[in-house]
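Hey everyone, long-time lurker, first post.

I ran two proteins through the pipeline my lab uses and got sequence/structure pairs for each. Pasting them in order. The first:
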Amino acid sequence: MRKKLLLSLLVFQLAFCTLLIASAEAVTPTNLEMIARVTGVKPAGETMPNPNQTDTNYAITGTDLGIVWDKGGGQYFVLFGDTNGHGPNDWRSNTLAISSDTNLADGLSFDTMIQDTPGHAKEILPSKKINFDEITVIPTAGVTVGNRHYIHYMSVNNWGPAGVWSTNYSGIAYSDNNGATWTKHPTARWYNNTTNWDNKFQMAAFVKDGGFVYMYATPNGRFGDVYLARVPENSLLDINAYRYWDGNGWSASQAGADAVANGVAGEVSVAYNSHFNRYIMTYLNEHRQSIVMRDAPTPVGPWSGEKILVPGDFTGLGQYNAFMHPLSNNGSTLYFIMSTWYPDYNTHLMKATLTADMLGSNIVTDPGFETQTATPVMAPWHVDGEGGIDRNLGHARTGEDNGYVRNGSGWNSIKQRVVVQPNTNYTLKGWVKTSSNNTTGFFGARVPNNGAVISEVPFASLPNYTELTVQFNSGNNNFVELFTGMWADGDTWVQVDDVSLVKEANLVGHAGFESQPSSTVSSPWYLNGNGGIDRNLGFAHTGANNAFARYDSGWNAVKQEIFVEKNTSYTLSAWIRTSSNNADGYFGARLMNGGAILNETSFASVPGYTKHTVTFNSGGASSVEIFAGMWADNGDTWIQADDFTVTKN
């Protein structure tokens, strides 16, 4: 692209010429095991290790959370929520431990805890402890950048029914003295709406990646969707430096944020696992009464459907949260800290094995209905009319269970809400069979809450399971509702199994510029220099629109950040044509923020649309910038570009 970067291109390509490219695999948790207590008093008869003896060593008899992050120097911070001690007047809103334990097979041991007096863990972030003002201050995430440590916390106004609470705001606190003291920054805060209590960024999880800190967030309580922001890692305290994922790109407005994963989600934890080349997300789903896991190839998704990490009936402990330990991030063994309500309020170290599965590209949760533990139906599936789950009745296409609807009249359907990327193509598939009298069935996608149909296929009598396929574009929608249903006329039934929804392979958003709303370039596309969108001017390669760059001097280009799997090979292509005086055009991919060029091809005068193609390897990057541009060295010069694609090799 830029002439002075040609040398860096050569250096970068040589550095990766012997790179062994890993293939990402989706993952499923198996072999769940409770390893040890982390906090609390070991009750009579319990055989698990209790290495920290927090009741006698730190005056902690009960606490929860256990957020773990790498603090540097071979140590980890372990951060807890509301903490009980000896007596009613020894309530602390939060406490903090330091651990250098790297052998988690026999439990997680502390080196020490931050203390205010010997043998008494300190409350590191104070709270007013006044109900309907500030009843407590609860930490939700932590990260270390350089020598400074950061905590994301929420100021709780009041506790409501189970899983419901209201927050005044969330904020960032920092420490420059190894966690001994913490300062709540006065402006690094996300204030809640005290009318609806619905700000999207009240609870968080942090992931450091590529010079940014990604902040996954939910509203207060456990019933919201998961949203995403990011900030340069050295700007965590600058609220104006945060950018919010809007479904296609990054917006400076919180209000523009769209969900990256649909809830209900509480106490989120996110980490990158280099062994599987996948991002892992865990949280409590109150509707399913289970701790669940999702995985994705990039920080923005697409996130898989939920997979059960800790089932709701696990030893009757009333468990919640699964905060992953960083020592899990490079292997197939997942260690995490889990909290329990009873028989006591405390934390435990858990272990699961991550195994490869075939569900990673499928964003439907419980696609085969195999984790349904009750009839008629459980979240995330829902029913209009009459229906439920055939559990181990021999009616399933695969496995033991399937969904069904059955009634004598009216509309009856089984449905699920999922997150999609706006203006993106998807393929929906499912296997359906029906009673012989069915005449008016439909399988498809629509706007949630029984909104407008986006696309559907009709079906009549299907005596055997038959695969149905619907292809659709999500349009301006961030959520869609998948449905299988029928209009009943007499006793009529439909059975469905093995539902899948898969995003198109092309990673480029607004790839043909048809969804660009005006002649000004808008997210996810950006400009260097001068350019715009040709709308309905007859200049497009296909469709009505194309992008252009045009000026009489300097570098001018259209570009987009795309999210990729690390250490993976991709093919980039687009159709380009130019003015007759163009002599110095470039098309390719590079690292973000003016980083090294991964690969590019040059072009001079191209009088008719010509397809240009380059391959590149993402290296250690989770996002790269694709571009098409030219140096306007010969006066008024232009290029036009259309129909971009980036696909994994």
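...and the second, right after it:
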Amino acid sequence: MAVRHDGAASCPAGFRSRLVMTSRFAAADALRAALLSSAALAGLFSTAAFAQTVETLPGISVFASPDDGALLSGSLLSGDGLGEAGLAARRVSTADTAALLRGLAGVSLNGNGGVSSLPALNGLGADRVNVLVDGAPIAPACPNQMNPALSAISPMRVSKVEVLAGITPVSAGGDSLSGTISVESAPPVFAAPGEAVHTEGKLSAFYRSNGRSVTGAAEASVANDGFSLGYSGSWSRAENYKAGNGRTVRSTLYDVQDNAVTVGARRDGHKVTLQGGIQTMPYQGFPTQRMDLTDNRSAFLNGRYEGIFDWGTLDARANWRRTRHTMNFLEDKGGTAGGGMPMDTLTTDAGYSVKATLPLSDRDTLRVGTEFRHTGLDDWWDPVAGSMMMSPLTYWNVKDGTRNRVGSFAEWEANWSPAWTTLLGLRNDVVWMDTGAVQPYSWQNATGMGMMAMANPDAADARAFNARGHARTDVNVDVTALVRYTPSDTSAIEAGYARKTRSPNLYERYAWGTGGMSSSMNGWFGDANGYVGNLDLKPEVAHTVSTTLSLYDATRKAWEVKLTPYYTYVQDFIDVERIGTLGNGFVKLRFANHDAILVGANLSAAARVYEDEEIGAFRLSGVAGWVHGRNLDIGDALYHMMPLNALLTLEHRRGGWSSAVEVQATARKERVEEARNEPKTPGYALVTLRTGYEWGDIRIDAGIENLFDQHYLQPLGGVDYADYRAGGSRGTVGALPGAGRSFIAGMTVKF
């Protein structure tokens, strides 16, 4: 149906994590007990997948300095983060959780829907990033990835984001290449000692003028010292935004509601957290896609146990999520009531992880764990009444698709001296996938339907696909080796090597239709081209070497500079090969293995430039990034490589007042992937102003984004297909323009 719309935290890769424990030793017995308990829970210890991320205790800082054991190349974003990098300032300007990561070293965002950007780390995005929401991965329930993992949690529910780019310890997760993004919702709130009953709440409202976007949110908790009950809910809605030249950018509207309930209990060093919720998206436009989201509903249940024992710590999680997704045309793409082309997806995610940290001695720490992940996928397209091409049967894009992953890891961290620390890790992941027989809209071929069937080869494709075996099993091995040298209290150097492996997703292997319509419905790349799966794909294997040099003052309060160059060689990189055309300049592509390299560097710096009791404190910070990617087999550039870019921020604080001026500069994008007809984009610079004042339980925020109403084209935004289609599909499709000037206002009241 077409639709009209009018208007307490985890520490992945905890390098030298410092945990308070009642007893630190008993190494041999502890190791044996941990392995046996993990095996009993997993039932598959020999191949179980490990993903360490031990919950730190209250009051322990992570990702703050080398002395705290964080990876130098990692980034932390939290509600009380450094300066204006805190989440409170960022939530005001966006309803897209991925956008909270802007300005973090190594992070870029590939364009998608208004609340569904796809993050990339060091040039590798989408499924190549291990994205965890409350410790669990979430598989996209859509052939266009309209509901990626970070869209499953509202920015208002996020309490902390941790980013590990490049050299990622095996304990931070597998089945990925570029790193890990871990997003955590707020932990349960408990009463303080001596407090009988604790209650707290928060109401927030934000408005953004461009697109007339509104967000409302509410939080409430009631607890004693051993039990907690909390609620969090939000609603965001926006119309189409306008570009800097005043033109309305079609299919950028959205509507999303998010509700979650959290129950927690704790006693004697043990804590249990249960969380459940429902998210609904009545609609979300996708300017770079041929379709739009016309309904998306998901429900989830998460459970977590955290325990402190005399032998170490144990962290166990279980998760379940079910997502029902529908695509069709919104009005911007020609949708009319009762018409269109409905497409449906049903996905179930379920799994668990068990992780243990064992301090074997003052020098050595061992981390082990087990993990299992299951995804079940059905993707079908209902027949369209009155259409000869899209009837009379239901088209099965993926039927009874399953993707399971299980494995194990072990990680040894050694503090050889105050100056030298090493980390060695080994991980094994076994991935097995399968799918059932598929079906086209019609089994008639060229003999039965003449020239029309010759233009639509799906019947022959389905027969060929069903004639082959679909089951595939990959045995993947990851290795990480890191060394840190801290020669003085003003410098640190970290260097390492990582071997990371990712198996194809269900669509990359099993999207079978080569017809013009069927292939164009698959693809999350924002280029409006057609994509066809490949049963013979091999897993990607990335070899990364990287070094981080960090310089800072002795107190780590005045200034800091950090440089991270990296080199990645990807064996069997899943790129594409052209197999035909779709007309109007669009092409048909099949996923294929190639070898590729990525070379780049990230630079970040910060300094306190002035401080006075009367005037306040001024801080200057900046982040710059560059990446170059190349397909070694054909010499073409890799798709969606961010050109040289930088973000410079001047912040001011005085009492409850905080303000900032941001300048974002991006160079011209000249190296593009010819195979996908990726558009080039000119360079640009944007200026943003923001300010906020907090007194007592009230906070007020205001700001102006794109102060000078600059018209610019997004280098990773994809093509402006919605406008191209509205213009009669004539000429050449161009790059998607970014949003023009927007005035922002918000208020938060705590009680």
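Reply from user beta_strand_b:
Welcome! Quick read of the second one: The domain at 27-435+470-750 is CATH 2.40.170.20 (Maltoporin; Chain A). The longest strand covers residues 586-612.
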